[in-house]
Amino acid sequence: MAEREERTFIMVKPDGVHRSLVGEIMERFEQRGYKLVGLKMMTAPKELLEMHYHELRERPFFPKLMAYMGSGPLVAMVWEGMDVVAQGRAMLGATDPLKSAPGTIRGDFCQATGRNVCHGSDSKAAAAREIGLWFREQELSHYTNDQHAKWVYE
Ligand code: ADP
């Protein structure tokens, strides 16, 4: 990974999978010039979801969130590139889709906070924690995209 690049954890939630939005969401990151370095599909075990959303465990919607996130397969991804943590959040849009700008994933595809189709790490520290939670080091790829090096980065 080049010095100016960083990694973030992006997930297509079960509603995004059921609504066939996996390709659309991945395409947006690819088209922006970000590099896919980790990818897996699974129905997440309850323990993993509880660790992932540990900070929200006292919130009233937590049981509903656990049921939603465990309701079917999700797609977990790691994307790499310049400022990708903050840019990934911007591409997802606000947590509440009704407050998300058109042009963002949530602003284009969702209406309800409890069905907001995607997750993205909200800080570099969260990205490191979440990538470590969902992926083993050997499941992450290291490669140079020559096109990006020449045509995406200055
Ligand atoms: P984000 O996913 O944008 O980082 P949070 O970490 O605050 O947002 O919340 C995690 C997830 O919990 C949200 O994406 C959403 O699916 C769900 N959630 C948050 N707040 C609510 C709420 N008030 N009612 C139902 N679900 C919620």
TrEMBL record:
Catalytic center residues: 119 (pros-phosphohistidine intermediate)
Family annotation (HAMAP family): NDP_kinase
Pfam families recorded: NDK
Reaction(s) catalysed by this chain's protein: a 2'-deoxyribonucleoside 5'-diphosphate + ATP = a 2'-deoxyribonucleoside 5'-triphosphate + ADP
Keyword Transferase in annotation: yes
Coiled coil: none
Keywords attached to this entry: ATP-binding, Kinase, Nucleotide-binding, Transferase
Matching InterPro entries: NDK-like_dom, NDK-like_dom_sf, Nucleoside_diP_kinase, Nucleoside_diP_kinase_AS
GO molecular function: ATP binding; nucleoside diphosphate kinase activity
Full protein name: Nucleoside diphosphate kinase
GO BP annotations, alphabetical order: CTP biosynthetic process; GTP biosynthetic process; UTP biosynthetic process
Its EC number(s): 2.7.4.6
Segments crossing the lipid bilayer: none
Residues of the Nucleoside diphosphate kinase-like domain: 5-142
Keyword ATP-binding: yes
Family: Belongs to the NDK family.
The protein's enzyme class: transferase
PROSITE patterns, per database record: NDPK, NDPK_LIKE
Binding site residues for ATP: 13, 61, 89, 95, 106, 116
Cofactor or coenzyme needed: Mg(2+)
